[in-house]
Amino acid sequence: MTDETDDVRGLLGTYALGVCTPEEAAAVQARLESSPELRHELEALMPVARALLNASAPAPEVGPDDALKRAVMVRVREETQDLSTTQRRATRSRRLGFRAVLRSPVRITALAAVLVAIVVAVATVTSGGGTTKTYHAQITRTLAPHGTAQITVGTTDARLTVTGFPSPGTGRRYQVWLQTGAQAPRPTRVLFTVDAAGHAEATLPVDRLHGVDRVMVTSEPAAGSPAPTTAPILQATV
Amino acid sequence: MVPSPDHHLSALDDGALLQRVAGQDADAFEAFYDRHVLAAYALAYRIVGSKPPADDVCQEAFLAIWRSASRYDPRLGQARSWLLTVVRNRAIDHLRRVTRTKDREVADEALAERRPAPRDQDTQAIALRHAAADEAQVLLGELSEEQRRVIELSFYSGYSHSEISALLDVPLGTVKARMNRGLTKMRSVLGGGTT
């Protein structure tokens, strides 16, 4: 057993209780990744954290009153109405737009072309007995205001395509990470940069995607990092 | 009196309720609120020590659940634990906002006085181990005073090891050792073992 493992073991309790500093948490996560023994010890501590959360039987003289519930429910119902209004407007806008298309022969032709393209695309995706799924990534707009990204996962290969991405920076490349649940992101060897138009394609390790919940990309030193050092520019739930 | 949601919603489990909440079902959210507000409030009050901030913390936490229910993943834990974790985090944030001022001192004193852990080891105390609401009190009662204090300061007041070391005027290593021995003992009791 190494000193480093001993240090991390000493932090497991505070990590389980969620009271580590960010630096301590990063150290624990990095070690958990490679140590089934530590993961087992952490799992054994989780019931303690749950018990502490549930520890507080209400004092009889103090409790939540009706005003609290009213305040919460007023906000909830306001937000429900706001959303409904937004959805109704969007639906109405779509209907009006569609009617406008139907009034124009040129637009009808364009619509038909799009429909044909969709049919072809669906046929392509589902042909050959295999299943190909496409996931659209969520982009961090402060990092890539006009970026888009998608991941296509087939039975034998997986590809990440990005457009409108900024350069990762001098001496840096984008690195792909895989994450399962709340575990620390696992590094991959997939490193890439983008062309002048912000476009890039990268092949993902399809054999490592099983059980993965999220794919992330961060800007890292050109050789890659063992743990993310910057905020993700994209995240995709797969 | 605020009316309760439909009876059929009250019969759904938390996971099913949150699925509906994710679809903006306010009635399902209300059922979830009614089911867990007592525990959430008790935890918030325990941490912040007075009613106005406990109200604020609970309101923030429940609205956070309302807005992010679609991200709830039952594989990562119970919905109740998720809610209580949000409550705890918000309450600790509140404590940090009051920045170790007089309010903070009051909260800590209240913590010490309001929840004395039972020290008895009689049959009644052992039976309480199976009651969820009292389980941790019993568990904390198994600890030495020093171990319990460190764990409470950490979990319910959000102090770091270093801060606890300064607060109690004991070496940092002692704080870590008390914390780990205490948690190990609680784990052992929860697992039905002896220490």
Task: Describe the secondary-structure layout.
The complex is a heterodimer of chains A (about 240) and B (about 200).
Chain A: H1 3-16, H2 22-34, H3 36-53, H4 66-102, H5 105-126, E1 133-136, E2 138-139, E3 148-153, E4 158-163, E5 172-179, E6 186-192, E7 200-204, E8 214-221, E9 234-237
Antiparallel strand pairs in A: 1-3, 2-9, 3-4, 4-7, 5-6, 5-8, 8-9
Chain B: H1 7-10, H2 14-22, H3 26-48, H4 51-68, H5 79-97, H6 102-114, H7 123-128, H8 132-141, H9 145-155, H10 161-168, H11 172-190
What fraction, in percent, of the residue positions of chain B are helical? over 70%
Number of strands of chain A: 9
How do the strands line up in the largest sheet of chain A? 2-9-8-5-6
Topology order of chain A in helix (H) and strand (E) letters: HHHHHEEEEEEEEE
- Summing up helix and strand content along with how strands pair, one would put the structural category of chain A as alpha+beta
Low-confidence stretches of chain B: 106-131
Biggest sheet character of chain B:
none
Shape of chain A, please?
flat
Estimate the helix proportion of chain A, in percent.
40-55%
What is the average per-residue confidence, as pLDDT of chain B, rounded to a whole number? 77
Largest interface: A-B, 41 and 63 residues
Low-confidence stretches of chain A: 117-130
Strand fraction of chain A equals 15-25%
Beta-strand fraction estimate of chain B = under 5%
Count of helical stretches of chain A: 5
Shape of chain B: elongated
Count every beta strand of chain B, where a strand is a DSSP E run of 2 or more residues: 0
Structural class of chain B: mainly alpha
